[in-house]
Amino acid sequence: MAMLEVNDITISYGTRPTVKNFSMSLEEGKICSLVGESGSGKTTVIRAIFGLLPGAGKVTEGDIIFAGDHLLNYSKKEWRKIRGTEMSMIFQDSGAMMNPTKKVGAAYTEYIRTHENISKKEAVKKGIMMLERMRLPSGDNVMQSYPFQLSGGMRQRVGIAMGMTYQPKLLLADEPTSALDVTTQAQIVRQMMELKENYGTAIILVTHNLGVAAYMSDHIIVMRNGVIEDQGDRDHILYHSENAYTHKLLEAVPSIGGTRYV
User: Fold this and answer.
1) How far apart are CA 207 and CA 92, in angstroms?
2) pLDDT tens-digit profile of 204-218?
3) Rounded to an integer, what distance in angstroms lies between the CA atom of residue 181 and that of residue 171?
4) How far apart, in whole angstroms, are the C-alpha atoms of residue 213 and residue 221?
5) Looking at residue 259, what is its pLDDT?
6) pLDDT tens profile 215-247
7) Distance CA 94, CA 158 (A)
8) Is the per-residue pLDDT at 256 higher than 70?
9) In sequence order, what are the beta bridge partners of 12?
10) Which residues pair with 87 in a beta bridge?
């Protein structure tokens, strides 16, 4: 049985559906990418899975089953219990999600102590260990820094470290590389692949970069205007799809010397 089952969900804001009849399943240690242009509904889907739809957003039809539980029936208390432990989310610019007036260490230890009954000293030690596991040198210096004192790549590693503190079964990644330069993108992609290999973490990756999706994914879902336009494994999407929109996305991938590197 799949760890995550999304069964024919429709997500609406008021009376207006923005995502219609979306379904997917995900097994442990697998990566699925949601690709498509801005406004296609990719982020809305993962926010629904995480129970964090903004404003009046609501799943009006269908079901979301995670580790055998029906998430749409969860209370706020049940959500608090699994967010950050069983499932985590990293955002496009993790630094933008941090309080700019708080040092990284203060935010991180608060996060750890929300989920675990340990002393502040132990939480600091755990935070430094996780930061260094994400290949951030001098984790103690990072803990003493404000978010604006870190580069985009370092902030993103902090976000991933926080998201992976409790080795969640499911990691939801919303454009985790789009705010970064190409070299840093490659490092973040490698680290996410290591999470899959080392911990068996399943990942849903939202991206507009078909190259990143093709490199990382076991399964790719192409979205457009709130519906699934195309889907399949990497080989199908890159070489065998007959969908005109998928072809347009592939044509948008830069080529070097006539060769497209996806």
Assistant:
1) 10
2) 999 988 888 988 999
3) 22
4) 10
5) 55
6) 899 999 999 999 999 999 999 999 999 999 999
7) 7
8) no
9) 17, 58
10) 83, 170
What is the model's pLDDT at position 189?
86
| pTM for this predicted structure | 0.89
Cα–Cα distances (Å) from 241 to 221, 233, 235, in that order, read: 12, 10, 9
Place of tokens 């002393």: 119
Integer Cα distance of 221 and 173 in angstroms: 15
Pairing of strands 170-174, 259-260: unpaired
Which CATH number is 4-260 given?
Answer: 3.40.50.300
Q: For the chain, what is the HEC assignment?
A: CCCEEEEEEEEEECCEEEEEEEEEEECCCCEEEEECCCCCCHHHHHHHHCCCCCCCEEEEEEEEEECCEEHHHCCHHHHHHHECCCEEEECCCHHHHCCCCCCHHHHHHHHHHHHCCCCHHHHHHHHHHHHHHCCCCCHHHHHCCCHHHCCHHHHHHHHHHHHCCCCCCEEEEECCCCCCCHHHHHHHHHHHHHHHHHHCCEEEEEECCHHHHHHHCCEEEEEECCEEEEEECHHHHHHHCCCHHHHHHHHCCCEECCEECC
Query: Where do the structural domains in the chain lie, given as residue ranges?
Result: 4-260
What pLDDT was estimated at residue 261? 52
C-alpha to C-alpha distance for 75 and 242, rounded to whole angstroms: 43
Q: What is the pLDDT of residues 125-153, one digit of tens each?
A: 999 999 988 888 889 999 999 999 998 88
What percent of the chain is modeled with pLDDT above 70?
Answer: 95
In contact, 155 and 98? CB cutoff 8 Å: yes
